[in-house]
Amino acid sequence: MAHINLLPWREAARKERQKQYLSILTAVALVSFLLVFVVSSIYSARLEGQQKRNQYLQAEIAKLNRQIAEIRDLNETKNSLQQRMALISQLQGSRNLGTQIMDEVVRVVPSGVYLTSLEKKGNAILINGRSESNNRLANMIRLVEDSELLSDPLLEFIETGRSNQLLSDFKMHVRVQGFEVLQGEMP
């Protein structure tokens, strides 16, 4: 039998397999790199799209916040105008109140009762006067209670007169109905 040396052939086959292994390894590395690059590009595009949507939403939210602020300002202006209108209406309604009060005081003061002073404090009137008898003063209190404009008569005191024994001094508080005290300034 002839002697055949198979070592160079095995060596050549090993080198060929090594080349194939390296070329397959290089191909796998390139495919892996391309796959990572494509996936990274896809996620970058999605991220940019989401960021654009977020920016759009933030811009729209800013617009809505400005509109809400404008609406609040308009509501404050509206409330201020409504308060002014109510105040003007109240002033218009109470324009003749002084005359009406004086007219009503004349109606409720019976003969024999003499007023020395009237003083208005807010929606109350302080009445100082003299009376010929307590019955006439009681009649005045009943008339005040029946009045549509005056109410809540409160007799503070009755004192017999020092200078004149026939007349008694009195002090009475009366409240004016339907009249709110205008407090503060117009807005």
UniProtKB/TrEMBL annotation:
Domain of life where this protein originates: Bacteria
Gene Ontology process terms (BP): type IV pilus assembly; type IV pilus-dependent motility
InterPro entries for this protein: Extracell_DNA_Util/SecSys_Comp, PilN
Coiled coil: 47-91
Segments passing through the bilayer: 21-43
Signal peptide: none
UniProt keyword terms in alphabetical order: Coiled coil, Membrane, Transmembrane, Transmembrane helix
Protein's UniProt name: Type IV pilus assembly protein PilN
Organism per entry: Alkalimonas amylolytica
Lineage of source species: Bacteria, Pseudomonadati, Pseudomonadota, Gammaproteobacteria, Alkalimonas
